[in-house]
Known about the structure:
10 strands, 4-stranded antiparallel β-sheet
Amino acid sequence: MAAALEVAADRIEHASVLDKPADVLAGLVRRLIPHGPVEDLASGSPLGHPAHPILVAVPIGSWVSANLLDLTGGDARTTRRLVGLGILTAVPAAAAGASDWATTSGAERRIGLVHAALNWTALGLYSASWVARGRGRRVKGALLALAGTGVVSASGWLGGHLSYALGVGVDTTAFQSLPRDWTDVAAESDVAADKLVLADAGGIPVLLVRAGDRITAMADRCTHRGGPLNEGEIRDGCVVCPWHQSEFALADGSLVHGPATRPQPTAEVRVVGGRVQLRRADEPRSLRADSVGP
Length: 294
């Protein structure tokens, strides 16, 4: 089964016919969810990780509970209410997912489009189930809900593929580990005020910037989608990612505005003999023990 599912996912990833409708839809999403507080909320920036995985738990839980009541002869009114709750809570879940999806491209965007199409199909089935139940046709409503659960399951597999196989929503610096020992990366004179400097620290790209009277260093690869921060700009004490406009504080790499949900990893910095040296600021987590390059 796993091999068959991977083949199906691979075909979707290479289905370039999906690009045009996906691009049109992504443009519409960007207009409906503009950059700023609305996008921050939809992306989950205040939470520290994407909001979509949290929000989908409510509609899925409601619909599966309705399925169980159908199968066990539970109260019809309660079952219909559960279906309705799933329909209502699916809307914010879909908005959060759309916000995440709009900043993807290529294979990830194609998979995401099919994932969304399946979700909307399931929503249509559950809506029809809710209407049928309201007309006293519980068996029909139960069958429609069961079909919806099947579609949601297929969509859920694609959602897992997006996260666990393609890394959408994962901190792109998760497997980077800066050097344990002090490492020479640049001349102090090269790090001027209001200048973003790209340096190499043991194969890991780092961003150097002068914040006030000190030099700070953070991962150059944006935690959101891997954008090169050194190609961005400095704005109000932040570095702005050139790809999706996430903002990180120069002083400590903390997240100021999304769509990113994770802060930029930072390093300890010192200046010795006119040379900038850095080392990682803390012990690496177990999966970061073996560092990887850009």
